[in-house]
Specification:
This protein is α/β, with parallel strands linked by helices. The protein has a single domain (5-145), classed as Rossmann fold. Helix content is 23%, strand content 25%. A 7-stranded mixed sheet has the order 1-7-6-2-5-4-3. Strand 4 (81-87), helix 4 (94-99) and strand 5 (110-115) form a beta-alpha-beta unit. Helix 2 (18-29) packs across helix 3. The longest helix has 12 residues, at 18-29. The two termini are 20 Å apart.
Length: 156
């Protein structure tokens, strides 16, 4: 019996290429509720932006998706799905997230992906999906959806 994408991600998945990571994120995107918030934890180079590129593909977004490090956030439209991609690295506090008036990205029809979510942890909704991304010793990338206890919302 095949396991769901969330079950696989909770167990942890290792990918051999950026394209495999994008494909995995695209598969997840097809199952996400419209107003999902994804908190992407990981060091520099762990694949957070690559994950968002795959997420965007799965949401039907065809334009380029790049890191919003200097713009803080980028907005993307894919058919009826909207994606806000926030890089919180340069934010000094949760207050700065409030000051940017980003609350509208926390509700439908937006899907919000946040890189460096620990910088704005108190600003994130309690039902945010938390992912740990990393680089293995052999150079492959790993991704794990944090287990129950993090108030993971149900798939639609």
């Amino acid at each position: 019996m095949p396991t769901s994408i969330c079950d696989r991600l909770r167990a942890g998945v290792t990918t051999g290429s950026a394209e495999e990571s994008r494909a995995l994120a695209a598969e997840l995107a097809a199952e996400l509720p419209e107003d999902a918030t994804l908190a992407l934890h990981g060091d520099l180079g762990a694949g957070k932006t690559t994950w968002v590129q795959g997420l965007a593909r799965g949401l039907g977004i065809t334009g380029a998706v790049t890191s919003p490090t200097f713009t803080l956030y980028n907005l993307h439209r894919g058919g009826t799905r909207l994606l806000a991609h926030l890089d919180a690295y340069r934010l000094g506090s949760e207050r700065e997230a409030f000051d940017l008036l980003l609350e509208e990205f926390l509700v439908s029809p937006w899907c919000l992906a946040v890189e460096w979510p620990e910088r704005v942890a108190g600003w994130l909704p309690p039902d945010a999906w938390h992912f740990d991304l990393g680089i293995e010793a052999d150079g492959r990338h790993s991704v794990r959806l944090r287990p129950a206890g993090w108030a993971q919302p149900e798939l639609r």
